[in-house]
Amino acid sequence: MHKILFSQEGAEWATAILVFVCGAAAGHYASEGMNAVQWAGAATAVLGSVTAAVAVRVWPSPVRETVDE
Question: Is the pTM of this model over 0.85?
Answer without folding.
Answer: no
